[in-house]
Amino acid sequence: MAYIIYNPDSEKTQISRIAENDLDKAKYPGMLSETITTEEFNFLKNGTKKIAGHNGTNYIWEDTVKSSENSGIVFPDQSFLDTHISILIKNIKVFTESQGAEGHVDQNFWNTYISFLESFDTSAVTYPINTSWEKYCEDNSINYKSLLQLP
Asked: Residue 27, Cβ neighbours under 10 Å: how many?
């Protein structure tokens, strides 16, 4: 079972984090959760869909990348990808450089991911990239996690 994690004072559509399983869910004490399918978890993890609403029973999903010509280009050139990777590194370092990261079960993964991002050769990529960075990683067998999985 996978989960959407949200703050107790938020609506179900205002997600804070995602958890792939019960063990990951336990990393967010004091937060509320809603069960989602593995497929829905992957929508959020790889950034291909976002939550558009909740009908009281189920989440309503919306594509993040439109299929119409040009609007589906997420990274038209290297500078866009470089900027995105810099933002990822900055956000991940907020966790890895915090006191809470020391000894955390996910610390090694996030440190390894930062090292990968810092050494990734964006000039070797064929542009444009018409999908999210996370989907690009999935499609190219790169070990990754979404920022929504940060502790």
From this structure: 16
Model pTM score: 0.87
Would residue 56 be called left, alpha or beta, if left means φ above 0 and alpha means ψ between -120 and 50 degrees? left
Tokens linked to 107:
């610390």
DSSP character at residue 104: -
Quick one: how far is CA 100 from the chain centroid? Answer: 20
Do the beta carbons of residue 40 and residue 2 sit within 8 Å? yes
First to last CA, the chain: 18
Instruction: Find the DSSP H helices in the chain.
Output: 22-25, 38-45, 78-96, 107-119, 133-139
Task: Tell which residue, 48, 76, 46, has the closest CA to residue 143.
Answer: 46
Q: Tell me the domain boundaries of the chain.
A: 2-63, 78-149
> How many residues would you count in the chain?
151
Indicate the SS3 state at residue 53: strand
- Whether the upstream peptide bond of residue 128 has omega within 30° of 0, thus cis, is yes
Per residue in 21-41, pLDDT (tens digit) is 999 999 889 999 999 999 999
The number of angstroms, rounded, from the C-alpha of 112 to the middle of its chain's C-alpha atoms is 16
Cα–Cα distance, 20 to 40 (Å, whole number): 10
